Amino acid sequence: MQQLKVCELFAGVGGFRLGLENTGKYSVVWSNQWEPSTKMQHASLVYEARFGAENHSNANIETVATEEIPDFDMLVGGFPCQDYSVATSLKNSKGLIGKKGVLWWSIHRILSEKKKKPKYLFLENVDRLLKSPSNQRGRDFAVMLRSLSDLGYAVEWRVINASEYGMPQRRRRVFFLAYFKGSELYKKLLESESIDWILRDGTFCDAFPVAQTSEKPIEFELDEDLVSVSDNFNPEKGLSPFLNTGICVDGKVSTLKTTPSYDGKRILLSDILMADDIPPEYYIDVNDLPKWEYLKGSKKEIRKTKAGFEYNYSEGSMVFPDALDQPSRTIITGEGGKSPSRFKHVVQTSKGLRRLLPVELERLNMFPENHTKLEGISDAKRAFFMGNALVVGIVERVGTSLFQKISQLEKQFQS
To answer: What is the pTM of this model?
Structure first.
């Protein structure tokens, strides 16, 4: 089977591309990276430096015409978590509009307008997506599933914490795969029992095996009308019905709580640390230590808003310094810079307490070393990239399983 052609949206510094190209089974034919809030497009500069400028777009995806994008087999991307509510446009009672600037609708538009629809989608988001917004839990994911069903896609999803499968970072994200009707994987999913697909036959459980924890799947059907889903999903406003694993075929949802099944090698924070050549500014100044200890510690105090309103504030303590015999905590975008912070990683070394280097943050996301090192790119910006990135090892394993499944099924259907 030939390599699958990939379109990578919201590419960042290329985590999806790295994971897929590591398998040797995928080729990115077009990519887009645009950061709306900055004049300098730093992530796009890194992307072009590593992969070349050919067929890479650094324009707002909302302004890119679908015909400018070459045909592809699979669309991938880690799109922003936003408000996915929809409404009916006044001019056209059937015309659905999402909020301007909500990038899910750019994916939707490209899929809608492509004459040759991609057979596969592979997308990533924060796991909060399954239970947002807080006043109508699960609505956003329901809107996405319904809109994908309307476009002819069956979906399977999984919340994956990279560290639970031996990877060096406790980073929990929801990944979902979608298969276009007529594709072998769509047909296979259609004829499978939902629980069999979730626990044994699906792509995610092949890449990341699971054990069942809830007795049986929760099953329900999404309204056919997208506006109705947006307005009326989860009317009791209780917990989200979407559990950490599930499928949706033609608007019919089956979702199950699963736990990881893994007993292989584990990479710890200590395994990724550099031993030498640590710049002096990465060590914590003794004078700053009390501020670090305060920010990392537990608090119960009265605070004031700007308007003068007093309120009780409390939070628990964090492990300080970070535990070396565990996978690391999640990297966030504010990881860079030397100012004391509750969320930045600090490790104890023989020469004192220090922050993590950009190359160590890259290792935690399983990127090649110094992937983000480029003239004019600060260490703080490199840390920001890794706070936004995904764990490359997850993409690689899912990509491997997906390609194997497609190859096997094509052979079966041909014979």
So the answer is: 0.94
Whether residue 186 is found in the same domain as residue 68: yes
Entry field: residues in the chain = 415
pLDDT per residue over 195-226, tens digit each? Answer: 999 999 999 999 999 998 867 899 999 999 88
- Looking at the annotation, which residues are catalytic? 81
User: pLDDT-derived band of residue 400, with 50, 70 and 90 as boundaries?
Assistant: very high
Full DSSP string of 12-30: TTTHHHHHHHHTTSEEEEE
Number of domains making up the chain? 2
* CATH code: domain of residue 367: 3.90.120.10
Residue 126, both tokens? 């924060």
Handedness of CA 13, 16, 19, 22 (dihedral sign): negative
Please report, for residues 7, 102, 113, 122, the alpha-carbon distance to residue 66 in angstroms, rounded to integers and kept in the order given: 12, 17, 7, 19
Q: Which tokens in the block code for residue 62?
A: 């909302």
Same domain, 133 and 257: yes
Domain interval for residue 306:
269-388
Look at residues 208, 203, 194 and name the one whose alpha carbon lies nearest to residue 246.
194
Quote the strand ranges of 288-399, DSSP E.
299-304, 310-315, 346-349, 352-355
